[in-house]
Design brief:
about 110 residues
Length: about 110
């Protein structure tokens, strides 16, 4: 279910990029998509692995670490995008987000 929702959110980000949304909008949507997908997967895996055990500290550390990593990657992407000497469409930024999602999915296995 998390993969389906993540794909739908990413589709919405791609659609926004194709329709000419601003770079900031596409980047914010991509960041939100990656975070939602990662948090959903983490929650499902924790439920399967730990059941009803207490996991608040683990969840908070995962949330903080993931948010920091994704926010850092978004800042780097935004700076590189703005510093580029040629004009790139916002869809290029969405493709960069897709590459990050693919890398995250590959590393999870």
């Amino acid at each position: 279910m998390a993969n389906l929702v993540g794909a739908a959110l990413f589709g919405a980000v791609l659609l926004a990029g194709v329709q000419g949304a601003s770079t900031t909008t596409v980047l914010a949507g991509g960041v939100g998509t990656v975070l939602a997908w990662t948090f959903a997967h983490s929650a499902l895996e924790l439920r399967d692995d730990l059941g009803e055990a207490r996991s608040r500290r683990l969840e908070l550390s995962h949330t903080a670490g993931t948010t920091g990593l994704v926010a850092g990657a978004a800042v780097v992407a935004a700076v590189l995008f703005r510093a580029s000497s040629f004009e790139l469409p916002p869809l290029a930024l969405a493709a960069l987000v897709l590459a990050g999602v693919a890398l995250t999915a590959a590393l999870r296995r």
